[in-house]
Specification:
This protein has eleven helices and 20 strands. The two termini are about 15 Å apart. It has helices at about 45-50, 100-105, 145-150, 150-165, 180-190, 205-210, 225-235, 250-260, 280-285, 300-310, 325-335; strands spanning about 5-10, 15-20, 30-40, 55, 55-60, 65, 70-75, 90, 95, 115, 130-135, 135-140, 170-175, 195-200, 215-220, 240-245, 260-265, 290, 320-325, 345. Helix 4 (about 150-165) crosses helix 10. It folds into two domains: about 5-150 and about 315-345, Medium-chain alcohol dehydrogenases, catalytic domain (Quinone Oxidoreductase, Chain A, domain 1, Alpha-Beta Complex); about 155-290, 3-Layer(aba) Sandwich (Rossmann fold). The longest helix has 14 residues, at about 150-165. It has about 350 residues and is of the alpha/beta class. Strands 3, 7, 8, 11, 12, 19 and 20 form a seven-stranded mixed sheet that branches. Strands 15-14-13-16-17-18 form a six-stranded parallel sheet, with helices on both faces. The chain has a three-stranded antiparallel sheet with strand order 2-1-6, with helices on one face. Bound molecules: zinc ion (ZN) (2 copies). One zinc ion (ZN) binds near residues 99, 100 and 111.
């Protein structure tokens, strides 16, 4: 085994360096060493690169970014863990204490002791190797590529959103924002039985992709009044579940208006404002359920099954590939949404 590896380390705003760092050690019996092959560039990586802080996590020390990863198992300490060298795995990027009430009840995304890739001070996966506990690694079937394996992370978010939002058979849903998470939330809602999926976005290319992936109606919000269109498409009723996937206050407010009486608004994106204006009386009188979302729990197995079964297409979202050495440029590429990028993948 080599003792050093290449990694893309974020030092500060717009300062990411690809340099040699030590290969992580497998120390605990639980740990497995994974040779990383595919890592998606997430909005949160780009946010760190642009701002140096995300939510309550500031970048205090140089940190390796990247958390949407898949690779090959190269070293296993516990032979009974069910994995062996050569296995291809998707990495679930947050492992938890496994002991608290939330971990025990299966709601482990609420665990206070989560260790998450690329959430400083924890190093991420824009690197050649990651050491990670075996119970947060998921073996990929031969039919899934490692790029698809990396996409299990954003798909887990989409599946959790569809589940939290309660999208079910015959439901109508609106997806506000057709970025990677919006497109995966849409496909998850359809897989859960939604029969009408209205998608709005400002980019024609993303809407075309949404239509290809199963959207029944697409709305170019740069050209049309999205709220009026959704109401018209639903005969003035509104949708059963409105998903806010743009991470913006105006779309959250719109979601609250286009949800039907007694419907649900599922927040998926993270709006930049913490105290937006909310139509409280309308929410009360129309019995709207506004639901939060934090990552996901128990979503990797269904994510893998749904892609294996051909029910969800993640491959079509992957529009660009970069080598590890090109990671800093990939941050800017994605931030500026160059060349119609939807999901860029780093292949270390
Ligand atoms: Zn992500
Ligand atoms: Zn816990």
């Amino acid at each position: 085994m080599p003792t050093t590896m290449k990694a893309a380390v974020l030092y500060g705003i717009h300062d990411m360096r690809v340099e040699d760092v030590p290969v992580p050690q497998v120390t605990s019996e639980r740990d497995v060493l994974v040779r990383v092959r595919s890592v998606g560039v997430c909005g949160s990586d780009v946010h760190f690169f642009e701002r140096g802080i995300i939510g309550k996590y500031p970048l205090r020390a140089p940190t390796i970014m990247g958390h949407e990863a898949a690779g090959d198992v190269v070293e296993v300490l516990d032979e009974a863990c069910g994995l062996q060298p050569g296995d291809r795995v998707a990495i679930e990027p947050g492992y938890t204490c496994r002991r608290c009430e939330f971990c025990r009840s299966g709601q482990y995304n609420m665990c206070r002791d989560v260790v998450f890739l690329a959430a400083p001070p924890i190093h991420g996966a824009f690197a050649e190797y990651v050491a990670w506990p075996s119970d947060f690694l998921f073996k990929l079937p031969d039919t899934l590529s490692l790029d698809e394996g990396a996409m299990m992370e954003p798909l887990a978010v989409g599946l959790w959103a569809a589940k939290r939002g309660g999208a079910g058979p015959g439901d109508s849903v609106a997806i506000l924002g057709a970025g990677p998470i919006g497109l995966l939330t849409m496909q998850s809602a359809i897989a859960a039985g939604a029969t009408r999926a209205v998608v709005s976005d400002l980019e024609a290319g993303r809407l075309a992709l949404a239509a290809k992936l199963g959207a029944t109606d697409t709305i170019d919000a740069s050209q049309t009044d999205a709220e009026a269109s959704i109401m018209e498409l639903t005969g003035g009723r509104g949708v059963d579940v409105a998903f806010e996937c743009a991470g913006a206050v105006p779309t959250l407010q719109m979601a609250l208006r286009v949800a039907r009486n007694g419907g649900t608004v599922q927040i998926v994106g993270m709006p930049a404002e913490q105290h937006p204006q909310m139509p409280l009386y309308e929410m009360i009188n129309r019995e709207l359920d506004l639901r939060g979302l934090f990552r996901y729990a128990n979503c990797y197995p269904p994510a893998i099954s749904l892609v294996e079964a051909g029910r969800i297409d993640v491959a079509s979202l992957v529009t660009h590939h970069f080598a590890l050495a090109e990671t800093p440029g990939a941050m800017t590429f994605v931030h500026e949404r160059r060349d119609g990028v939807v999901k860029a993948i780093i292949n270390p």
